[in-house]
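User: I'm putting together notes for a lab meeting next week and I want to include a structural view of one of the chains we've been expressing. I don't have a solved structure, so I'd like a prediction I can at least talk through. The sequence is below, exactly as it appears in our construct file.
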Amino acid sequence: MRISNQTVYDTVTYNLAKVSDAMLRANQMVSSGRRINRLSDDPVGLVSVMNLRSSLEEIGQLERNINMGESWLKMGESALGRIEDILTETKTLCIQMANATQSEAERRDAAVVVEGHLQQVLSLANTQVDGRYIFSGTQTDTAPYVLHEGDPSDPTDPTTVIYQGNDTAFEVRIARGMNVAAGRVGPEIFGSWGNDPGDDWSDPAAGPDNIFKTLIDLKAHLQANEVNGIETAMTELDDQMDNLRSLASDTGAKLLRMESKENIIQDLKLTYSERKSGIEDADMAEAIMELRAKETAYQAALASSSKVMKMSLVDFL
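Assistant: Thanks for the context. Below is the predicted structure for the 317-residue chain, given as structure tokens.
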């Protein structure tokens, strides 16, 4: 049976293309370092690699969330500690000023110190991390507290410190279905009283849980040389510092929880990366040997093909 030249040429071309494609695949494996570069290389393996990549992306997001949450919690812990220090200094000052030996002038001077403490606490209440307020609930772009300086000569215009955030703590996701509050709601720290428009800031007996109200009233008591008011402030400061210590302890527990989750995520990240590498990555020594074999086969195919292509009708006579 005679075979047409066209059939011979088509067969040679087809076989040469197969050898060329095999060499290209071997070259891609060496250059990329991966055993799977396209779906046809290993369909089942590629699906596994894609699932592992998705898992690694999710783990990466959780890792970023935890890092952010830890930053917020550490900054919050630092702010709470500093506020407690300020209240401790304020109580020490109260003890001194409640002493009968203190003069009216000395108490007026102490009122200036308390004003400074008020401004410091206000600044700490508006603590930010990366431009976001950590004590404003989920309204992280809004400063949680704003000070209104009242008119001393107008009893209807008292000094106030108003909360502008909401009552939902900002949370971060640290696992599937697991969130941790990294931020806090301001009133949880500085007092729940004072957030209702009907709250009377001019009433010295109101808002004993509100740190700002205590400092504002204490300043007024010092200016008016009222020892009883100074003693009342001392009691309020004790309760407020107890609350701050409790919140600091809760923050520490959250940090430990996040650190534990971070360790788990690091282990998962390593496990998934190793599994992905085991499926996807090529054995480079083997891949280089395979490439050399394919190059040799390609050169041989080229030489063979060139001879076939040069055959004429005379060769069949």
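A couple of points you could mention at the meeting. The two ends are 14 Å apart (CA to CA). The longest strand covers residues 171-175.

User: Perfect, that's what I needed.
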